[in-house]
User: Fold this.
Amino acid sequence: MISLLTVPFLRNIMIAGGLVAVGLSPWSVYVVLRRIVFSGAAVAEVASAAVALAVLFQLAPFPIALLLTVASFLALSRLADSPVLPPETMVGMLYAGGAAASVLLIAKAPRGEADILNILFGNILTVPSSLLWTMGAVFGVLSLLQYLASKEFLISAYDPDMGRTLGVRVELWNMIFYGALGVAVAVAIRTVGALLTFTMLVAPGAAALCLTGRLSRAFKVALAFGVLAAIAGVVVSYQYDLPTGPTIVAILVGIFVVSFGFGRAARAG
Amino acid sequence: MPAELLKAEKLSVGYGRHAVLHGIDLTIARGDFLGVMGPNGAGKTTMLKTFLGLLKPLSGRITAAPSSPGGRVLFGYVPQRESLDLHYPLTSLEVALMGRYGRLGPFRRPGPEDERIARAALRQTRMDALAERPYRKLSGGQKQRVLIARALASEPEILLLDEPTNGMDVNSERAIMELLTELQAEKKTTVVFVTHLLSTIETYARRVALITFDGKLLVGEKAEMLAPEVLAGAYKKNNKNL
Assistant:
């Protein structure tokens, strides 16, 4: 594996995968516990539509995607309290709307379809070094935020009424949580695409929660699973000439299946 | 005469524009042990949440006399334990530690002193031996003790409990209510609990607030409020339905 790191483009792929894992996998614990798994998928579609929109009007894709991703997460967090409809309805509509808008906007875009699909869905094989620095900075700040605001994020999700009576500004912290998640998703989609972003936002946390009965440990286990899957995915895809993103996704799903089985066996025994 | 802690005047509570209870006049004194009784859906929790500041009064006002001038009354809220998500892998100690969050500023994590206070609160509720046990694996009565410990860890001026013995067997119910009675007697903690169980009110409350069939609140000493003619008047509509 050390020899793989001497190949510049492989080194970049491995660093990109590792950064996405560090940036997203600890959030996946909250995504699972807050029951917002499909929000990630829906927001990923909105990010894709935003990129297509930017291409159509020849604007910079990343700022538009970032803006709409953060706005979508914030809107979902506010609309989840609707007295009329269950929260997943809004998620479903956002998913359908984002997907349809992507296809319609691509159909009218002036650039080649392959070129646009690359921008839309990201390609871990073509991550430039400059983007790695951006990812490192953004994910570093978000990880620090998650560590420092862990008690605010926890009480706002677990028992918001208790939080309010203690003087915690639950609405503000929920906005910060969803805003930060939106930024993380926008940066990750730009790099590795919607499928890997979505899986990295669910599988590591779900696997960790199967194996540990301590929340603090779940974040560490999720991080370890995310990084392991990213590195193993790059190595396996290189060795067996497979597409890298789907290989990482398959490994993450495999880790979840094994963890789920172990968890069940441990509880039964 | 004990000092006033909270006072509601001509208070109406409810959701949206719909008032569930109206014209509430209620004074809670320091050291009070008040049981609020009413049938399911009568507005007990709505009233409790309004006192806690979680819901805005539809009309009327609540005045508070916190112990520190210019501060706010420190509430120890014990929600219905069924409202908490058991998917969260938290130990009893981690749940009790949440009571310290209000005492810490933003971005500050609980330290050794907070853990010491949370463990002391667990000891008070006789849950210290199960501090490292996952909360979700506790019995109903044990969960309730942890939630009371969490409220105590916040070092509150008043404990507000929402249906603290709901769904418990007789022994667990007695243990929880005796714990509250002890806390009130030893620490002079102000305790307000809501319940739909007449037997709980009858055995443990000192003062009683009775929600009537037409959305009013009658408040008085226990003997006075549980007199048959007062109960019959309060639940007139229900009795007719029987």
Notes: Chain A has a mean pLDDT of 87. Chain A touches chain B at residues 32-33, 148-152, 154-155, 158-159, 161-168, 209, 212-215, 218 (CB under 8 Å). The radius of gyration of chain A is 19 Å.
